[in-house]
Structures are given as C-alpha cells and as structure tokens.
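Methods — Computational structure assignment.
A single polypeptide chain was analysed. Its primary sequence is given first, followed by the predicted tertiary structure written as structure tokens.
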Amino acid sequence: GTLLQWAKQQRADYIATGHYARVVRNGRTRQNSLLRGVDQGKDQSYFLFALSQDQLAHAIFPLGEMRKDDVREKARHLGLAIADRPESQDICFGDYKALVQSYAGDDELGGDIVDRAGKVLGRHDGIHGLTVGQRRGLGIAAPEPLYVLALEERSKRVVVGGKDELGCRGLIAERMNWIERPAGNPIEAEVQIRYRSPAIPCVVRPAENDACEVRFTGGCPAVTPGQAAVIYQGDRLLGGGWIKTAIQD
C-alpha cells in the first residue's frame, strides 16, 4: 500500500500498528502467517485479511501478544494520558451513517420496506443504516417481529420477514485474498462474517476468478452482502473476501 511505499522511501524496515493480531515468520520458507491476537476478545485480525505477503513481511503488531489489561497497565507505567480512556464501540473514524447522510438527502437514500411477496410495508431512510438480521428501528407494526432479510442496492428496497426466514446455508465470496491457501479442495475451516461474531465451522471451495463457495456446517447465520468473509483454521487466518450473495439451498 501507499503507507508501505512511503516507509520504504524513508528507509524504514517495518511499520508498527496497534492492531491486536500476530505475524509469525517462517525463516526457511519466507512465508508469513497472520494469527489472531492473544486477547481473543480484542482480536482485530479480521480487518487485516487483505494484506499481502510483502505487507506482512514489513508489519509489526506489538499488542498482538498482550491482553488489553496489560496494555493499559503498561500505559500507566509510562505515564500516558490514554491509559484510562474509555473504549470506542463504533468505527474509528466516527459516525458513518451521518457521513453518508451529509452527502445525500433523504430522497436519494430512502426506499420501500417490503415482504418476500413484494408487498410494501413501510419506508426507510437509507439502506446504509440497516444490516441483514436487524430487528430494531424498522418502524413497522406487525403481529410478529420482523427482521431484515435482504438489502437491494439498486432498487433501494429492504426485504423483511420472520426469524425463520433469516438463516442461510452458506455464501459466495469474491475478490478473495489468500494469505495462506491450504492444499486441496474443499477445505475444512471456519468463517467469520462480522467482526464481533464467532467463527462458524464450514467447508470452503475455492473457485475461478478469485471467488469461493462457503458452506456452513455449524449454524445458519444471517449473511450480509458487502461485508467481509474471513477464513480461519484455528487462530490462523487463511484469507478472506467480500460477500457477494447468500446461499439459500
């Protein structure tokens, strides 16, 4: 990336960041492995799936071997003012919903809320503020709880339905980046489809054009196109891509 190019121009050997993740280097094969951070509750490897081998070779994650409590204690020992700062629960750069809203008015973002049959049940202010599996904030009166089943970007429609309609059997991911691609096809692994969600046992079948099919073998979660699907084997991150569509059958 641009930052690594700049660092090399400054004759720096490495870039250090505050991600809770680990890099293991194999001196014999010169292969770099990306692992979850020791503090599983703070692990941020999910966000790093798109890194290349060259980028990992020049990356250092000092916090990867530490737990958050140890980091705070180290900060106190060094007299850093951030030692007791409350943790942020949202994305690092602020309120993205408000950011999107500032660039487009309600008329551009809004659309219909419909059921599976296409019946209009209400209106929404923008799909950027919704996610598949969401129940609260729809503003629809119904005899049973309704959940977001799908977000249709082109038509701006939000499809809703009952909880029993929510799960799926797997997903198709595109623009896959493999940090370590195991031999063989299919691959038994786990997939994480949201930052805070647990990894789900699955079978992965790499396909042509940097795509792959992921079939869940444990659980049937709600899948959101456009989010990252990151493949692990234990703590080792194999690769990841962007969810194109859910597999229902």
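Note: The chain has a mean pLDDT of 88.
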